[in-house]
Each structure stands twice: as structure tokens, then as C-alpha cells.
Amino acid sequence: xxxxxxxxxxxQQTEQGVTLLLAIDAxxxxxxxxxxxxxxxxGVAQLDWAVQFSQQLLMGPRAVQAVEVLKFQxxxxxxxxxxxxxxxxxxxxxxxxxxxxxxxxASGRLKWETSV
Length: 116
Fold this sequence. Notes:
Elements: E1 7-13, E2 17-24, H1 43-59, E3 64-72, E4 80-90, E5 93-100, E6 103-112
Antiparallel strand pairs: 1-2, 2-4, 3-6, 4-5, 5-6
């Protein structure tokens, strides 16, 4: 079975969050059939990674209540390295932004359930 997550090449803490350098390898599950001959990383995979890494590194095991201002701007193909910036804005809000060679690839805001 192919991998579900990219390889974390580098991790750097920032004042409000964390920045990850991700290797987008061709053997990621999300490239299968999307699209034959011209593989493109699905936006849903990018969103899933942003949620999963945010839970692990920033917000804890809370559920996402809403996704806001979600934008996909550049197609991602295998063999590149993406930078993923995760920032906690408030106790129940975080943002994510993917970058490729200085160009914004995708971004969004995540609203999290409040801690119980």
C-alpha cells in the first residue's frame, strides 16, 4: 500500500506555530488515478494533512468544526517539496498555508471544537 503522508524533511518551530518541509513523493496514495499520465495531488489530501499535522503539533486531538477561506492555487505534482506553515490564531482557530518555490499553493482557516 502506498503512503498516506509525505515525508517530513524538516520541522521548525515559529512564534505562533510550526513550519514543515514536506517531500511529496510519487508513491503517495493520493497520486493513484489522479490523473494517469499527469499526476496531481488532490486538494482533499492537502486539507487532510493540514488537519492531521495541526492536531499533532498545535491543537491537540480536537475535531475541526469548520473550514473557511479554503483556496487551492497551484497544482502539486510528485517529486517536489512543499513548505507547510501552521499557525494558531486563537484557542479555537488555526491557519495553514502551503508554499512551493515561493508561490502559495493552498491555504485555509480551521475552526476547532472548544476543549471540554
